[in-house]
Structure formats: structure tokens, C-alpha cells
Amino acid sequence: MAGATSPSAAANLAGKSGVRVVVIGDPGTGKSSLVVALATEQFPENVPRVMPPTRLPADYFPDRVPITIIDTSSSPEQKPKLIAECQAADAVVLTYACDRPATLERLSSFWLPELRRLQLKTPVIVVGCKLDLRDEQQVSLEQVMAPIMQSFREIETCIECSALRQIQVPEVFYYAQKAVLHPTAPLFDQEAQSLKPRCVRALKRIFILCDNDKDGALSDVELNEFQVRCFSAPLQPTEISGVKRVVQEKMPEGVNDNGLTLTGFLFLHALFIEKGRLETTWTVLRKFGYDNDIKLRDDLIAMPIKRAPDQTLELTSEVVDFLRGIFNMFDVDNDGALLPSELEDLFSTAPENPWSSDPYKDCAEKNVLGGLSLEGFLSKWALMTLRDPTNSYANLVYVGYPGEFSSAFTVTRKRRVGRKKQQTQRNVFQCYVFGARGSGKTSLLQSFIGRQPSDALPSNSERFATNSVELPDGTRKTLILREIPEGDVRSLLSDRESLAPCDVAVFVYDSCIQGLCSPEELVLLKPSRTVAKLSASHTSTWHQQLDPCLLSFAAWAFIL
């Protein structure tokens, strides 16, 4: 499981067509000499104060990505330029002089805190220059740098070099390029010495995709197919046996009679990273479409479908059938509901559970154990598709949907066409719930999903409730209630595009308090959608009366 990155793949490395490296550090630490020695492969007798930008050709390093090196001055009058160059850089090479301990101390007392102050997210390569002048009695690089690296996790690598002796000069910029193209931070937790959760989730998805016979292990044939796909080179039988032997010696559960298990697959990648071979894991991730944030690249999940403001996307019957199958697969106890642990397992191949936070966390009905029914499961997907089709499609792909974007969704026809025909083909309807503070809007949403009003937690984000509603003819539709905060009403009603997704409007008021909104505001909705006006003197009545008298009406009203 290894291989060099091919030229054709190089353009896809972290989306970079070039790497910009800035060299900073105290005066006299050897910054300019380092740059000249790299470019000319010899030590310069007369070094300019600051070198002009130096560009290395694409074929200088194996990844075939050109590097531009920016030398800097640390004089006070040049500080604005130094800051600008740091902010434009992909990586920072921070130098100190091996023969001047004071410059080493300045790393943690000035330079590294200054880079943090600038809120840079770029990797830092710490370089000890003038290695040929270092006192042999000095402690090792590892001993010197360990406490500094412990405090400043942004340091990717530490290395010593000598421009005079041409010792490890190219390596400095190789590591700088590598830190950009194959960064450690997204993959590995240095403190815990383990793969990061998002990396584990991505590798798990890749493992499942490559496990063609779904027996929980990669056979020799499957391992070879994986190798060819990622590295364009097959593995010899002896190499496959060697890989499995290494895993089995270190982690017996990593191999079984069928081949390499998920545990063994993850162990191998952790081993590669620990040995500095991050390019191996990054090559695998990028071959399967992942970017530097370890999520699918935008060009793989972009939405190519154009639609009018009053048109929405809905899941196709093909996707609904896929989701039913996924639901049944992860309903391990066959109780007709996904417990929180089962839902986490379902989304364990996504970067994170998309429903773990608002507005999805508590938007659907659950049983007393917190289990989500199939109707609730499909309702959440309907809500995610309505609000963010691209995110919905990405998560479909993460959980195993093999189809294209165009096969996952259908575009609803324009609302005026439905009104003209006096019928609709839509299966998902959105109801805006208006009302003054304290009128019972949240209680209405809570009751719709079978909860007590007191169950609602305070939230600063949009609040939704989604459920399946049976219509008089026996068909079922998905209704999504969206609570409109009182302070958002006027701005919402003044923008017709904001109103376009609204199929049904419900106005809630406390009958003890007159007035909800002006007739002028109310009439904005009347020409294009159904308006229901409901009174609630006591919010507790919602739970008793809501389902039969309101929600079937709200979903049915638009169809009429």
C-alpha cells in the first residue's frame, strides 16, 4: 500500500497549482544564504540583504508542484511587508542560528506568538541554520525542540541545515511543500498519537467502498484493486503477505481469514503517518474525492440544477427506497426505530453526524428511548433537502448512495402551475408559522412532533418541526413547520423571494391579546399561498387538538 504520486495527480494535490513559502527569522540567522544555496547549490560569498522571489521548477520535488520562496527582512520598517507576506504564504520557514542560542529562544518568546497573533493557519517549519557552526556539546535537536513543539502545535517539522556545507538544504523546502500538500493536522492528533475522528470516518467509508463482497475484510484481490486505483501499480503476492504480516504482528485483530479488517486498515494508515509517509494516506483520500478538510470536494457534490425561487428539490423514489434500506440495515434491534447509537453508526462514514445540532437535532418525533422512526428519518432527510440540497446529497454519498445528483432529486414544478391545474405533485410542504412572542408558536411545533411544549430548549437558530401527515384520501405528505421569530416578520414579508418557499402560512395568536400583524402584511401572502389563522388562549390545548384539526388541514389546504 504505497506509491509515488503521478504527474497527472499532482494538479489535484490540495487543489494547489503552486506553493508559496515565506522565510522569516531574526537578522543574521542565515535566511538569504539558505535561499541562495538552494537555488544555486553552492554557498554564496556575497549575500544580498533580501533575496528577490525565487521559483523552483515543478520537477524539483517528486510531487511536481512549483515552489515560490519569499525571503524577508526582519527590520522594523519592513514589518508591514513581512506581515503581508506571512498572510499570503502557504507555509512559513522560521529560522534560527545553531551557533546563537538567543535566536532559538526568540522562537517561543517572539516569532511563534507573533504568528499566532496574526491568526495564521499555515504550517511552520522551524529550521536551525549554520549547523556547521553548532557546538558539539549542545543538546540534540529533539531535546531542544520538544517543549517548543508541545506549546506550538502549528510547528510541522524541525530540521537543521548548513548552507555552507550543503547539508539538508533541499530538505527544508521539501518539508515545507510537504506540509502544504500533505498536512499532518487534519489526519493525526499528535498529542493523542492517533488518527483524528474525521480521518477515521473517511477511511472507514473508503474501506467499505473497496470491500466489494461486504464480508468486513479486504481480500487479496480487493487489496490489489485498491492499490491499483490509488497508486496505479499492483501489489505482488509477496507484498500483500508482507503487509498482512506486519499488521498481524502489531494488531492481531487487524487480519482475519477473509483478509485485512477495518481495524487493520486504520492501523496501516496510522503507521504510515507515524513514519512520516503522510503522502500515502493523502493520496488515498484524494483518489476518493476528499479535500484538505477531509470532506468531499465541492465539484463532486455541486448542485447543477437551476430552479425558480418557488421550486424546491425533493428526494426521488429511488433515494427514498435507498434510505429505507439503510434504515433497516442500521436498525440492529429491529424495533422500527433508530436509537441514537444506531444513528451515529449510520453516519459514521460522514465527516460528522449532520443531525447532531440545530436545526435538525430535535426537529422530528422520537420514541421514549430517543429512537427515530422511519417516518421521522425520512422527514429529516426531506428537511435537509429543502434547506440545503448540496449538503443532503453529500450525506447521501457518505452513507453509500451510488447515484448522481440528478438521480437523487426531482425539481417540483412552479407553484402557479399547480394552482392552475388545481393539484400538486409535491410531496413536501413548508409551513411558515407566524405569531407574537408567547403566542404558542414553539408549542405548536413541539406538539406536531409529539412533544410537550416544556420540552423545547431555548435556541437562537431557526426552529423547525417535520412530520408525515395523512391526507383525507389516504396519501401521506411531509409537512415542515418553520417558526418565524417575531422580529423577523417585517423583513421576511418585505422580500417576496424569502416568501417563495412558503406553501402554507399559519398565524398564531393568543385570543386574549388582539392583533398579530397589519392587514397590509397579511395580504402579502394571500394571493400565492394558503393562510390559516388560529387562536390559542392556552398553549396546552395544542397537544390535544393539533394533529386532527390543524396539521392535516395545513398540508391539505394548499392542494385544494
UniProtKB/TrEMBL annotation:
InterPro entries: EF-hand-dom_pair, EF_Hand_1_Ca_BS, EF_hand_assoc_1, EF_hand_assoc_2, EF_hand_dom, Miro, Miro-EF-hand_domain, MIRO_dom. Transmembrane segments: none annotated. The keyword GTP-binding applies. CDD domains: Miro1. The keyword Calcium applies. Residues 16-182 form the Miro domain. PROSITE patterns: EF_HAND_1, EF_HAND_2, MIRO. One of its GO terms (molecular function) is GTP binding. Residues 318-353 form the EF-hand domain. GO terms for biological process: mitochondrion organization. It is a single-pass type IV membrane protein. Its main location: mitochondrion. One of its GO terms (cellular component) is mitochondrial outer membrane. It is found in: Mitochondrion outer membrane. Coiled coil: none annotated. Keywords: Calcium, GTP-binding, Hydrolase, Membrane, Metal-binding, Mitochondrion, Mitochondrion outer membrane, Nucleotide-binding, Repeat, Transmembrane, Transmembrane helix. Belongs to the mitochondrial Rho GTPase family. This is Mitochondrial Rho GTPase. It comes from Panicum virgatum (Blackwell switchgrass). The lineage of its organism: Eukaryota, Viridiplantae, Streptophyta, Embryophyta, Tracheophyta.
